[in-house]
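In this section we turn from sequence analysis to structure. A common task in structural bioinformatics is to predict how a protein folds when a small molecule is present, because the ligand can shape the pocket around it. The inputs are simple: the amino acid sequence and a SMILES string for the ligand, here NAP. Study the lines below before reading on.
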Amino acid sequence: MSTPVAILGGTGQLGFGLAVRLGKAGVPVIIGSRDAGRAQEAAERAATKVPGGTFSGAANAEATAAAGQVVVLAVPFSSSAATIKSVAESLREDHIVLDVTVPLAPAIGGKPTQMLGVWQGSAAQQTQSLVPKGVRVVSGLHTVDYSTLEDVAASVDQDTLICGDRKADKAVIIDLLNQIDGLRVIDAGRLDQSRTVESLTALLIGLNIRFKTHSGLRITGIE
Ligand SMILES: NC(=O)c1ccc[n+]([C@@H]2O[C@H](COP(=O)([O-])OP(=O)(O)OC[C@H]3O[C@@H](n4cnc5c(N)ncnc54)[C@H](OP(=O)(O)O)[C@@H]3O)[C@@H](O)[C@H]2O)c1
């Protein structure tokens, strides 16, 4: 059986969608929140949606401490630094932080089709600069819409690109996310590539608005 995955901000759209998908795949999930009660309520909701899943809820720091190898950061970009700082004491050297955050302009009142400049280069590199020494960041899932994840009866039917500096860490994330029905995970290179990958979200949001849909990514030519 897989070790538990903690999802910080697992009460929200993307985090909850990922929680139910992982739960469906048999991965135990600890939903994290700033409020333990809200986390427990989300865990109950997830268990109703996926009756065979193993879900619990805890405050973000406790969820991080109880995580096996993977801690998912699934909060708005505007609160990602504060969230990482709030769990820093619970992060261990064997942890990999899967960062799904995207620095979209609405964080400062801009359009969802526009990106913010991040001093470190990308949201994922900012997170890497904030985690304790030894903890590694892998970014991914930027282009997967939460509603597609939440619809657990349907195949996700798309690709997702992940970025990270260590092959072994990316292998852990690939093994984890490949358990989601219909999701293909592709290694897109080092963490500094996340700047390009994160910006694909703004592109897809524009397509969603134009075509009134939930678009996803499919890379051809890679077996
Ligand atoms: N939504 C998508 O389809 C999607 C797809 C790909 C990537 N993403 C990325 O995933 C991340 C989460 O997106 P989302 O749509 O799931 O966000 P969300 O639903 O707005 O928020 C997720 C959770 O973050 C916590 N949160 C909200 N505001 C906060 C604040 N000011 N300070 C600290 N925590 C706060 C909340 O948890 P508590 O109140 O329980 O603490 C909330 O439930 C974003 O960076 C987004 O760019 C989203």
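The helical segments are 13-24, 36-49, 60-66, 80-87, 123-130, 146-150, 167-177, 194-211. As an exercise, try to locate the residues that line the NAP site and compare them with your own expectations.
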